[in-house]
């Protein structure tokens, strides 16, 4: 019977063929929590040590730190792992099915940001920090509804500013994979004002540097390509309650803990919802933002039922 660690490695060896890089990272993180608990407070080493009561103990342990939506996601990954173990003949079928999933708090979404607030931040950036790294980053995240992986993957050569579009390219061997691999590659139209910001950044403010693969990244702070963590840090800072380059007015120790701050994915979610609220056809928007219309409805549409009704009224001229 394999150890828990060996079984997890076997699980990832199989799932790496079908999961995107970002999904694999998520599964690694979720199972890391179980592995750490099992090897510590759980007192578990091998798969045959795990009983349904242990899964219940783990759920109680994690519930002290997680909300119901996050707990739901973590237990779903754990159940997928244990179902894999059952297929391998390493555990009884009843073990994964003994996991009781919590009721999620509403539909599958977390935080959003009001479009007017994003507009105000962009106005401040245009006035006080024109063509800065923050200005470029937020302009692209908001107007193009990009994921972190997409915005940091852009090289200067991918930009076609005279024709106002950018090409997103999946380059996994060079550190910039896209979520859906080759399926995420696409050409995205840019607003004219965004092109002006990008030109000014490239011509006047961008540090002259390359990344570890001798590519020329659009987003850089002077030492190679901007990391995923740095993208998050910049967005948390931009959306925190203190305003541009100011400490938080609340008691939060870090920008990420500020009740006003949002993550890059929240910018994407709110951006997609704003496009929908303006009446953009979902099937057309789907290609721009690299997600299906079903996923768009379930995960990204943060409009209220009243907003949807008003939009239908305008569409039908009622």
From TrEMBL:
Residues 108-313 form the Tyr recombinase domain. InterPro entries: CB, DNA_brk_join_enz, Integrase-like_cat_sf, Integrase_catalytic, Integrase_recombinase_N, Integrase_SAM-like_N, Tyrosine_recombinase_XerCD. Pfam families: Phage_int_SAM_1, Phage_integrase. Keywords: DNA integration, DNA recombination, DNA-binding. GO terms for molecular function: DNA binding. This is Integrase. PROSITE patterns: CB, TYR_RECOMBINASE. GO terms for biological process: DNA integration; DNA recombination. Residues 2-86 form the Core-binding (CB) domain.
